[in-house]
TrEMBL record, chain A:
PANTHER family noted in UniProt: NADH DEHYDROGENASE SUBUNIT 1 (PTHR11432), NADH-UBIQUINONE OXIDOREDUCTASE CHAIN 1 (PTHR11432:SF3)
Keyword check for Transmembrane: yes
Organism listed in the record: Parabacteroides faecis
Compartment(s): Cell membrane; Membrane
Transmembrane segments: 33-54, 100-122, 134-156, 177-200, 206-225, 265-283, 303-321, 341-361
InterPro entries reported in the protein's UniProt record: NADH_UbQ_OxRdtase_su1/FPO, NADH_UbQ_OxRdtase_su1_CS
Lineage, top ranks: Bacteria, Pseudomonadati, Bacteroidota, Bacteroidia, Bacteroidales
Keywords, alphabetical: Cell membrane, Membrane, NAD, Quinone, Translocase, Transmembrane, Transmembrane helix, Ubiquinone
Function (record text): NDH-1 shuttles electrons from NADH, via FMN and iron-sulfur (Fe-S) centers, to quinones in the respiratory chain. The immediate electron acceptor for the enzyme in this species is believed to be ubiquinone. Couples the redox reaction to proton translocation (for every two electrons transferred, four hydrogen ions are translocated across the cytoplasmic membrane), and thus conserves the redox energy in a proton gradient. This subunit may bind ubiquinone.
Subunit-level organization: NDH-1 is composed of 14 different subunits. Subunits NuoA, H, J, K, L, M, N constitute the membrane sector of the complex.
Main location: membrane
Listed name of the protein: NADH-quinone oxidoreductase subunit H
UniProtKB/TrEMBL annotation, chain B:
PANTHER family reported in the protein's UniProt record: NADH DEHYDROGENASE UBIQUINONE IRON-SULFUR PROTEIN 8, MITOCHONDRIAL, NADH-QUINONE OXIDOREDUCTASE SUBUNIT I 2
4Fe-4S ferredoxin-type domain residues: 58-90, 104-133
Protein name: NADH-quinone oxidoreductase subunit I
Organism expressing this protein natively: Parabacteroides faecis
One Pfam family cited in the UniProt record for this chain: Fer4_7
From TrEMBL, chain C:
Species, as recorded: Parabacteroides faecis
Protein name (Swiss-Prot/TrEMBL): NADH:ubiquinone oxidoreductase subunit C
Family, similarity comment: Belongs to the complex I 30 kDa subunit family.
Boundaries of every NADH:ubiquinone oxidoreductase 30kDa subunit domain copy: 30-144
InterPro entries registered for this protein in UniProt: NADH_quin_OxRdtase_su_C/D-like (IPR037232), NADH_UbQ_OxRdtase_30kDa_su (IPR001268)
Pfam family, one: Complex1_30kDa
From TrEMBL, chain D:
Superkingdom per UniProt: Bacteria
Protein name: NADH-quinone oxidoreductase subunit D
Organism phylogeny: Bacteria, Pseudomonadati, Bacteroidota, Bacteroidia, Bacteroidales
UniProt subunit comment: NDH-1 is composed of 14 different subunits. Subunits NuoB, C, D, E, F, and G constitute the peripheral sector of the complex.
Gene this protein is translated from: nuoD
EC number: 7.1.1.-
Function (record text): NDH-1 shuttles electrons from NADH, via FMN and iron-sulfur (Fe-S) centers, to quinones in the respiratory chain. The immediate electron acceptor for the enzyme in this species is believed to be a menaquinone. Couples the redox reaction to proton translocation (for every two electrons transferred, four hydrogen ions are translocated across the cytoplasmic membrane), and thus conserves the redox energy in a proton gradient.
Gene3D superfamilies named in the record: Cytochrome-c3 Hydrogenase, chain B
Amino acid sequence: MTSLQIDFTGFTQWIGQTLSDYLSPGWALTVELILAAVALIVMIVVLVILMIYAERKIAGFMQLRLGPMRVGWCGSVQAIADVLKLLLKECVTPFKADKFLFALAPFIVLTTSFLALVPFSYSPGLQLWDINIGVLYVTAVSSISVIGVMMAGWASNNKYSLLGAMRSGAQIVSYELSVGMSLIAVIAMSGSLSILEIINSQADGWWIYKGHIPAIISFMIFIIASTAELNRAPFDLAEAEQELTAGFHTEYSGMQFAMFFLSEYTNMLIASMMAATVFFGGWQPLYLPGLDGFNAIMDYIPGFIWFFGKVFFVVFLIMWFRWTFPRIRIDQLLRLEWKYLLPISIVNVLIAATVAVFEWYL
Amino acid sequence: MNKCINYIYSIGAAMGSLGKGMFRTFSSMVHPARILTQQYPENRETTLYIPERFEAELHLIEDENGELKCTACTLCQTACPNDTIQIKVEKVTTPEGKSKRVLSEYIYDLGRCTFCGQCVDSCNFGALEMTNHFENSEYDKRKLVKLLNERHLPANRKEEQI
Amino acid sequence: MNKEKLTTLLSNRFQGKDIGESFGLPALIIAKEELMDTAHLLKEDQTFGFNQLVCETVTDRSEYFELVCHLRAVGKGHEMILKTHVEREETPLLPSLYELWQAAELFEDEIYDLFGIRFDNHPHLRRLFLDEEFEGYPLRKDFVNTLDL
Amino acid sequence: MEKYMEITPDESEGFIINIGPQHPSTHGVLRLRTQLDGETILNMDPYPGYIHRGIEKMCESLGYKQFIYLTSRMDYLSAHMNNQACALCIEKGAGLEVPERAQVIRVIMAELQRLASHLLWWGCMGLDMGAVSPFFYAFREREMILEIFEETGGNRLTMNYITPGGVMQDLHPDFVHKVKEVLASLKKHEHEYGELLTGNIIFRKRLEGVGILTPELAVSLGCTGPVARGSGISCDVRKQAPYDVYDQVEFKEILFSGGDCMNRYMVRMEEMKESISIIEQLIDHIPEGSFRNKPKGMLKLPEGEYYHRVETARGELGVYIVADGSAKPWRVKFRTPNFSNLTALKPLSIGSKVGDLVAIMSTLDLIIPDIDR
């Protein structure tokens, strides 16, 4: 079936072959890595700019207004104009800040979010690193970013920043658990931690459909917990505007602020990619049993369109939450995690294990 | 058991209430006809609606002969709470030989005006009105001090200006 | 309780005092030494039961300052004015009504700020609106505005 | 500078943080010197005064007709009611008769203003709780109401429409039609307010049981308006001392007894329905006739003391005028609702979380220019 899909394996192999023809193996690897990194960064920046524009338009329409309309057609270059503005602005460091940590924090946050992008498979044959513990790697790496956030809050020497960072710390540490637990439910059913194998296991149906009850519950928990981990409304306590002005990045300006902003959107992308990979079958097309004609048409849609379509569906969900809900309070946030999400997800892992053992798949 | 049912019921009710809100924002998003905002500078000629009574700038009314109705009685100057209006009066002798008070300068400081409308209210001659011309911002606040009778200066003042 | 009845009750209770009318309400004028005792009585006596301090302010009467307390009995629906006079000097002293009505805290801060009248037993007397360094008390009639805008 | 930063021994324990004067949730320039232990508030002192303009002093140098415009700048969301309070007090002193038509117009305008004010409060409430979208939903009807004000009085926010002896201008010919449109729109969209905030579980959990104001405390602190009515204290001036034509209309005084944030919220939501019903009763029965009894010459009050109170959107506004017989008042005092409601902020917020402080401040609905005057 996948023969109709555009397969990037040949393309990547051709690059690798050409490079090793002209260069020594060490240099070939270096050039390959640099090419991959550049490609990744370009992809992320383009996607993030798209997301910013989408977010502003979605927010606008949800709020009975038009969103950006001035720069370009229907404000389409607004995000690029904003990026340019941020690039040109001065990065102000507070007088009594810890200058080294203050400058280092945005890099740590941004680097960790880029690191987490590595094991994802964007399309058949398009994957930077097929590591056999892909899911574990992503959850592990993305939780490092809390160190950058704490660093930013501490180094700013601002009480609002410090409060924001502390909230963020408590929040990310506790919600990591639910994210992990909800992923484990699906991993138990697919039987592998490798991203590629999880995708391949969904060739005959996505886990959200095949895994029925445990998969749906774990998808809901995953969406809630990852929204919390992303510090986005209704869990945006770390930067709660009405309480802490801007939380941990109150003192950041210019490009340093832009890095926090970029990493926030990249993290959102990562969470959505994870959801798309684990629950919606990655780049696997939608098949409906018994409808061969329909399935054949689905095959003609390239894999990366499937993948990013699913990613943007999840991104839209997260944006939808943000522009609808009020913010939760800090003690309620922790209570939600420890009293609701965690017990439910533990029970859910048990159900998933039972389903996996008896193979009660749909 | 009851507790367990309540627990599940509370989760369901919570989800339901969140779902209602999400439905509301989603339905707004897919109904662009409900949009409230106006594209202001572009709609100046089309949909922009400024009610006729809107108070934006003080204006002296002319009578049918093209002369100002203002008699320089300074009632508006006294009625103004912010010293926005300054009237300079001069005495001229009419051809008949009577001395007459004539409006020399009607100085209106838009920057101090709070648009309370008490000048218009106090005028016994119907010589004042508030116009709709609201785009009055300037980079220099001195430009907000306006001479309202610029086109109707008395004869001797006209010569001074030239 | 209507106005006339309250006036009669007040004149029975405070004999020798003149129950006048001020701001359209029965008014009792007392010396400042008696202020606390009278206020206690007005609040704690069941017939009066003035449990709310609606407003506390001062009028500069040129020769003296006049403290005006607007009292109300919420639930009973009657109100009165309690007045006292304080001599005009740099920083006159009056007892604070805070222990009776908590609303007095900010009202008295405001009076201290704008009239320069100090209050004894006030929990945290400070200049509410103006700068700590501001000179003069603006709502006094002899205040000269030195600010040039 | 030291005076502001002094730390008393018991304060050395906590984490002192200045919320304001420039802060998104103070809705203006209010400074709250807060002492925190982690997220819990140990102590909090309000420091107003950043927008003090000395309105009471300014009034002493203006004529009776002139200073009314200043009152629109106190509680700018209840501008009509503030003007009305002043006008009523001056009318009482000068013995001015107000034509029946003007009285009805005043009441309709005041109720429209209350609707507009509560709508803005509702939007800001959502904003404070972190939900941005409701703000724009609230502005839909508010914008229509402001357009009515604009058409009739000429201004949108600080109208100066109500004046001693009546109102400044007659109603716009479209007035009745437009008011009916607004009421219809409000009724049509009422369920949206419930869906977006009132019924939302996160929102309810943020408000329920937070910032409980006991009735005794509310009385002692001098709270009025929806804040006191949320604690079950009957204090609606429109009922207790009816002015203009409030004695001719039927409406309920909304009382909730819980005293927490949710009760204060519900009082305002229900009050909007009552306002709609008041306007509906009056809108078809605006009497014909003169809209203004214009005083001849300079308006002067005989020597004496005059007081009048009205119910603004936030509580009781009392106007005290001491007249000395001249054309200018000797002393004017405004007993503003927000000034008294501010006193409730400290006892309510001690012991709660930072997030609760925002909720409490929001349900007290503080308008800072009204505190500072």
